[in-house]
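Exercise: predict the fold of this chain.
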Amino acid sequence: MMRDYFLAGKHQCVKDDCLVCEIINLFQKFYTGEKNALVPDRLLHLMWTQARHLAGYEQQDAHEFSMASLDILRSQLDSSTHGILPPGSQLKRAACQPNPNLAGYEYMNDSSGGGGDTTSSAGIIDQIFYGVCRSDVTCQKCGHNSTTQEAFSDISLELPGSTSSPWHTCFSPPHSAGGTTPTSGGGVQVNGLNSLISLQDCLRRFTRAEHLGSRAFKCSQCESYQESTKQLSLLTPPPICCFHLKRFEHTSKARQKIDTFVKFPKELDISPFMSYQLRTDDNSDSMNLNSLKDKNLYSLYAVINHHGDLQCGHYSVYVRQQRDQWFSCNDHTILKATSEDVLKSQAYLLFYHKKHLEYD
């Protein structure tokens, strides 16, 4: 989709500092069939001039770079963020976070349904990289539900080992004494048993109902603060799904890199994390769930890895060219890789694309 758009000549521009123009130039060079190496030094320079917090030769964050590049492309393509949002919802932040501060969110839509037209004419970046996440806050006294729909371009997932987000609630009853500790094999020990954590485990934790306490949510039905729960789910997943494994912790308690190994699949079914599966009030209940499942199958196509620690590190990437042909890209060195090499790597960013794309 990106290739077709950028090679179709739809972007008309006379600016010298346009990132879109440079990406079009790189696409054109790549598809000429020439055997010369591509050096995207001008693309890096344009990123530095337009995202100055990323400029320089110090270690920068690949996730932050990815977010900034999408923001710049969206602004230069004059796309509208509201084009993908269902009526009654607003764009609050670019990443879908599991434990946002409620004070930073406004629950604008007080309905319990999840419908709306998500196919209006948005920009190409919106159509490819942005989806819609549903957030439900439920009063535990009267059952009243407050729903918000938020656009996201990636999903940030907590990992075992974080001091600010204990993982035992994902595997044992709330408030139990169980916990997790790292093991020498890169996994974690859950309630005394060795266990490998998977991407699906992280997504289950991300979409579980979270207790907010009695002072976080004021119920409009009870007209008072009540015990409540909050649950996130995926309402409209994007064609390209980016999963950000939160390996870097910067809190008052700790500054560390979390080295927990996370197992991830080549083929991912996100149906269990969709709103129509998790929310009984979702309007999709009457639809054919088997056909919906087929639309929620994703294939892995790129993995970004971080090597080193907080003070000194380095990024490399595995990228898939064809059905199962992988390459390892490490600065100027590009080598063939196997899918086994990819799946045993310590992922930081995971990129999946939908197996079945639908075109309007």
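Check your answer against the key: Residues 62-76 form the longest helix (15 residues).
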